[in-house]
Amino acid sequence: MKFYNSIGPNPHMVRMFMAEKGFEVPSVKIDLMTGENRREDYLKVNPSGQCPALELDDGTVIAEITAICEYVDEAKKDTPSLIGDTAAERARTRMWTRRIDLNICEPAANGFRFAEGLKIFQNRVRCIPQAADDLKATARERLAWLDGQMGDKPFIAGNKLTMADILLFAFLDFMGQVGQPLDPACKNLTAWFGRMKARPSAAA
Ligand SMILES: N[C@@H](CCC(=O)N[C@@H](CS)C(=O)NCC(=O)O)C(=O)O
């Protein structure tokens, strides 16, 4: 098995998930800054040209971070599931994960790609610089909504740590370093972020 790793919030999310599960795998570092991920050798591994990817022993490659985490969760059953133990728990985790992915991570990441990251991304993907501010504002609005939904729950989906927490944490951690800090007015999420940051897996 081999983990194709790199800088950035997507690989960080999977590394943190793996650390929580105690899932160990050899990794190889792909250099995103020089565009190694967009060249032929890596495209043979993951035709979408992005990191991370997990290559299984039989040669199957799994890309897309939530799909990799679902695989890891099922492959390592001797530690608590981070997806859920019942159909309803799994559905709740996937519901929150999808809300966070589509409404927060994707607009925030594109806001970054189309502004601070423009020099890196302009020759790789279609960039819409004039959309950057609105995309960032969309992510902020959805975070304010999520803060209200969070209330005093310990975790996004309720009482247990799930994939939804790890996804949001990895992205907020990155966005805080590239000009999209979490608004301190989001008091519930700010407290939750502090608790997540203190977990040893956050440094994975
Ligand atoms: N939808 C993908 C997103 C992966 C992604 O955007 N990865 C970033 C690193 S955080 C990347 O490879 N960026 C370099 C590029 O797109 O050229 C997933 O879920 O894995």
CATH class of the largest domain: Mainly Alpha
Q: Mind telling me which CATH architecture of the largest domain this is?
A: Up-down Bundle
Helix content: 40-55%
* CATH topology (level 3) name of the largest domain: Glutathione S-transferase Yfyf (Class Pi), Chain A, domain 2
Bound molecules: glutathione
Nearest-integer average pLDDT: 98
Number of domains: 2
Count helical runs: 8
* Amino- and carboxy-terminal Cα gap: 18 Å
Mind telling me the C-alpha Rg? 17 Å
The main pleated sheet reads as:
4 strands, mixed
Global geometry: globular
Count of distinct strands: 4
**Portion in beta strands:** 5-15%
Q: Which sequence of strands runs across the widest sheet? A: 2-1-3-4
Give start-end ranges of low-pLDDT stretches.
Answer: none
Topology as a string of helices (H) and strands (E): EHEHEEHHHHHH
Query: Which structural class do the helices and strands define?
Result: alpha+beta
Helix-strand blueprint:
Layout: E1 2-5, H1 9-21, E2 27-29, H2 40-45, E3 53-55, E4 61-63, H3 65-75, H4 87-113, H5 118-121, H6 132-150, H7 163-175, H8 187-197
Parallel strand pairs: 1-2
Antiparallel strand pairs: 1-3, 3-4
Helix pairs in contact: 1-3, 1-7, 4-6, 4-7
Bound molecules: glutathione.
Glutathione is lined by residues 6, 8-10, 32, 37-38, 49-51, 63-65, 124.
